[in-house]
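Session log. Operator J.P. requested a structure for one protein chain; no other inputs attached. Running the standard single-chain path with token output.
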Amino acid sequence: MRPITEAHVAQPGLAVVEVAAADDQTALAIQELLAGRWATSPADRTTREPGEPGVRLRCYLDVRQALNT
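Structure written below.
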């Protein structure tokens, strides 16, 4: 994964969430739960790191913004 930059966390309320899970379905389900609560810039796929178990996913949250429901 690319490094987290200062812009990703430049202000209070911005967060980067990295998920490690056994499979794609689990990682994407966690992302969906986060997106149901906060404004999210979701990942469209997971990644696999050679020699590491499971999959990884990174999404960006803005917890300052209430979700429009």
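Operator note: Strands lie at 14-21, 38-41, 55-66.
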